[in-house]
Amino acid sequence: MVKNLVIITLLLAGGVYVYIKSMQNNNQIEEVAHVSVADLVAHPEQYDQKKVRVVGVAKIGFETTALYESAEDRANANTNQAVWLEIPVPEKTKLLEDALEVREKTKQWDGTLVVAEGVFVSDRKGHLGMYSGILINVTLSDAKQ
Predict the structure, then answer these.
(1) From CA 92, how far away is CA 73, in angstroms rounded?
(2) Mean pLDDT computed over 110-114
(3) Residue 49 phi/psi, 5° resolution?
(4) Is the pTM higher than 0.85?
(5) CA-to-CA distance for 85 and 126, rounded, in angstroms?
(6) Mean pLDDT on 76-88
(7) Cα distances (angstroms) measured from residue 3 to each of 7, 8, 10, 131
(8) pLDDT for 41-55, tens place per residue?
(9) What topology does CATH give the domain 33-142?
């Protein structure tokens, strides 16, 4: 009985392993690179079009939605040391007032240390081309949790 359970467990584990590998080979499981804002700024070509997870200080406001390496960079508006954040508006909320509501909810992150996850695009530079790239389809979460 124990021998049969061990064999079944090994077969299941092997099947799961093969399934995960096939998903990775078909790009259905996307790897996420854990990087800093400084890494994105210094080596944009290395992360271009890749999903990344970045910890930084958020600046959320009028014509500025960005992630900075440090609170000092944020305070000094060192946009060349920051990446623009493109936070998606759900498809059904394309009305201006709905988009503004999403923006208001996003403001909770202003000035806080956050984890931003999204796809890095090095040749898009955010508002007025002042940033070192953008993160698209961004989700934000508290870095302290």
Answers:
(1) 35
(2) 86
(3) 65, 20
(4) no
(5) 8
(6) 87
(7) 6, 9, 11, 60
(8) 999 999 999 999 999
(9) OB fold (Dihydrolipoamide Acetyltransferase, E2P) (2.40.50)
